[in-house]
Amino acid sequence: MKWTRKDILHLEGLEQKEIEFILNTAKPMKEVLLRPIKKLPTLRGKAVFNLFFEASTRTRTSFETAAKILGADTASLAVAQSSVSKGETLLDTARTLEAMQPDVVVIRHASSGAAHFLAKELKAGVINAGDGQHEHPSQALLDLFTMKEHLGSVAGRKILLVGDILHSRVARSNVWALKNMGAEVVLVGPPTLLTPEIKAWGVKTSYNLDQELPGADVIMALRLQLERQQAGLLPSLREYSQLYGITAERLKRTEKPSLVMHPGPINRGVELESQVANSAQAVIEEQVTNGVAVRMALMYLLMGGTGHVVD
Amino acid sequence: MWWIKNAQVIDPAQNISGIRDMLIYNGKILGLKESYTTEEAEQLLNSAAQGSAEGDKTSKPNWQEIDAKGMLLFPGLIDVHTHLREPGREDKEDIRSGSEAAVRGGFTTILAMPNTTPVLDQRALIEFVVNQGKKAGLARIHPIAAMTKGQQGKELVEMVELTSAGAAAFSDDGKGVQSAEMMRLSLEYAKLTERPVVSHCEDESLAHKGAMHRGLVSTRMGLPGIPSSSESVMVARDILLAEEGGGKLHLAHISAKESVDLIRAAKSRGVDVTAEVNPHHLIFTDEAIAAHPYDTSYKVNPPLRSEADRAELLEGLLDGTIDMLATDHAPHTWEEKTRPFDEAPFGISGLETALAAIWQYLIIPGKLTPEAMVKAWSLKPAQRFNLPGGSLEPGSAADVVLFDPNHVEKIEADRLVTKGKNTPFLGQELQGFPMMVWVDGRLVFQRG
Predict the structure, then answer these.
(1) Active site residue B261
(2) Contact A132 B339 (CB under 8 A)
(3) Same domain? A158 vs A55
(4) Does residue A263 share a domain with residue A192?
(5) What CA–CA distances, in Å, run from B139 to B104, B248, B350?
(6) A167: domain range?
(7) CATH of residue A42
(8) Residue A7, in any domain of the structure
(9) Does B222 touch chain A (CB under 8 A)?
């Protein structure tokens, strides 16, 4: 298979074989990452720009590391502190960027659709590193990679996504990818964060975590933005964690060695009990490692890579 | 003096829909019948010219004749909802450019909303808009005055004073009146003026910071949603207030099916309420934002809603629940609309494309008759807002549109005369355009 897309903006609509192709490309990338000398000449002379309009240390570092291992030159534009505060529009930022001849631009932005907007303006490949409440494709791909490492295949596996579904770009990307790969997805959260329209995504929705736990292969807790409580969507964090917090007690109810995942950063004691986050079933740091590998694969493919990475 | 021959005349006010000749003289419609002989036309002219300065019975009348075979002729359209942005935001539009756009789109009278900078809440400002309109000398421009001072929702404007200055109605359009008591007081006090109070129905606590209709599409696209209830709860409230205390209530830009149901029920109870619908809500749904991902030319408030809403709005227009069409012409600058979707301003520039869009999307497919269109876009607005026009009855002001149902034109930014190029029809061909437009018997626009 040959990669043909210019950009990675969303997983909705991506074909199963495209997802497989990315994940298969990520495997040798992970091997490279685990070597004592982790450097490839593959993307030498290529320029990767990280354009982060939202503060995000972990995702930005992950992309930057991925680009550097592949030998690309990277520049990070912490736009939140520079041009935007001077009133520059995203369009002008994009044009300025274009003039510097980047090969891949990674964008994180608070507005849904910002990555689409940039992709239309730029000749460079654009990777969406999270746009508003829309999608976060590389996160879902690394989640899928991690699940497959442990479970072999996700087809037929029961995967719970727990928490703030309404506002979560991670949930959206995961739903489209997991559905596509044949997993049984169940979205769990309180009614104010799991609104009726979400039923139309075509996966099961439930307000009751305890009912859904039996048989779950993966429990993915989503990060809860603490301002949701201030906005009145939740009565208290206490009640939220009582209903939806993943505790050791709850974890037993799956009656399986279920994987516990979290996109990070964790609010300990809210989404996950510390005992769970520290347990062997939690694969949260593996997710981070796999994130670098998956992002290496994405950049490699967008810059015309064919699949022979390591040799 | 004009002699328009063999036109398909549509005039719901007189229940006319057929081939007619029309004579225009001295700013007025002189005559309208199947056909005139030269002698008949001359005779009419002579009797009209008696006592008129323009009359000169000795010379031969100098008719400008038009063979309008295959063309439609109807009373100039009246748009009760436009934003002309002057004073304050002349970079988006001014009264001159808005007037040009109006006549180019077939509108001979337009009402200008008061959410300018400063807000139209004082005599001098109302008079300014009236005078700028006269200076432009194209469409008739009637300002709508603010309902409350500064549109702050706290104190009523001097409604009687502003009416005498030329205000056609009162509205805090641009945002909803959040205080029910303020709305009640406005409806009651406005009785002194016999002008309607125009309500922009939007409960801000429900609309919150939404960017598009709350529904399946908004959740997929990750855009914050504006629920239908943000409109319908206020429609219900305003209807109940008008029912309880009286007053002339006009509901702007109805977009949700629940609102249509509420208005239908209110009318059957005899509440003095009228309502308008915008062409874009009859043509598009929220799916358009998915089909053209994050294209801000589809970002409008109230938002494009679901197919069920669209269908019910059309049903409401057909059964008279919704009285009139209105553009909600909302011009914005290019740089404002080339922002990410949730940062871009709401609004569609409508005056130049609205009639052609309705023609192409509703009339050609047979969903709406030309008669119903003219009634909803000319006669009903004239009646409700007590404006000249709306009829081709001899003796009335000659505000007339000659329309070619077959004329096709590609909508291109540099051909639009409005400063607001923010239309979803950009780059598309539309069919059905005004070819000649008269205001007060003066030819103010001719399609070249």
Answers:
(1) no
(2) no
(3) no
(4) yes
(5) 10, 26, 15
(6) 137-287
(7) 3.40.50.1370
(8) no
(9) yes
pLDDT digits (tens, 9 = 90+) for B211-249: 999 999 999 999 999 999 999 999 999 999 999 999 999
Domain count, chain A: 2
Does some domain include residue A6?
no
E-only strand ranges, chain A: 47-52, 73-77, 104-109, 125-131, 158-162, 184-188, 204-206, 218-221, 259-261
Q: Which domains does chain B have, with CATH numbers?
A: 76-384 (3.20.20.140)
At residue A310, the pLDDT reads: 46
3-state secondary structure of B3: strand
Residue A304 phi, psi (nearest 5): 95, 15
* Mean pLDDT (chain B, rounded): 96
Same-domain status, A297 and A270: no
pTM: 0.93
Contact (CB, 8 A) for B257 and B204? no
**Do A100 and A45 fall into the same domain?**
yes
Q: What mean pLDDT comes out for the span A287-300?
A: 97
* CA atoms of B185 and B112, how far apart (whole Å): 23
Cis peptide before B345 (omega within 30 of 0): no
Exposure string of A189-217, with b = 16+ CB inside 10 Å and e = fewer, is bbeebbbebbeebebebeeebeebbeebb
The secondary structure of B77-146 as a DSSP string is: EEEEEE---TTT-TTT--HHHHHHHHHHTTEEEEEE-S-SSS-S-SHHHHHHHHHHHHHHTSSEEEEPBP
| Tokens matching residue B320 | 């008279």
Q: Assess if residue A130 is contained within a domain.
A: yes
- What's the pLDDT tens digit per position in A75-120? 988 776 555 555 678 888 888 889 999 999 999 999 999 999 999 9
Beta-bridge mates of residue B4: B22, B66
* Same structural domain, A106 and A233: no
ipTM of the complex model: 0.89
> Are residue A59 and residue A77 in the same domain, yes or no?
yes
Grouping H, G, I as helix, E, B as strand and the rest as coil, residue B294 is coil
Q: How far apart are CA B279 and CA B326, in angstroms?
A: 7
* Contact state of B216 with A113 under an 8 Å Cβ cutoff: no
List of chain B residues whose C-beta atoms are within 8 Å of the C-beta of residue A90: 339-340
Distance of CA A178 to the CA centre of its chain: 13
Rounded to 5°, the CA angle B103-B106-B109 comes to: 65
- Is a pLDDT exceeding 70 seen at residue B149? yes
Check residue B377 and report its DSSP letter.
I
| Residue B208 structure tokens | 């919150």
CA distance B208 to chain A (A): 11
Judged by CB atoms within 8 Å, which residues 112-171 of A form the interface with B? 112-114, 116-117, 131-135, 166, 169
pLDDT at B54 over 60: no
Task: Provide the mean pLDDT of chain A.
Answer: 93
- Whether A93 and A104 map to the same domain: the answer is yes
On whether the CB atoms of residues B236 and B283 are closer than 8 A, the answer is no
**Residue A80 domain-assigned?**
yes
| Phi, psi of B11, deg, nearest 5 | -140, 90
Neighbours of B396 (CB within 10 A): 16
Q: Is the pLDDT of residue B58 over 70?
A: no
Half-sphere exposure of B327 (CA within 13 A, CB side): 32
Residue-level pLDDT at A88:
78
pLDDT at B258: 98
Q: Please check whether residues A131 and A141 belong to one and the same domain.
A: no
Catalytic, out of B328, B399, B404, B440 = B328
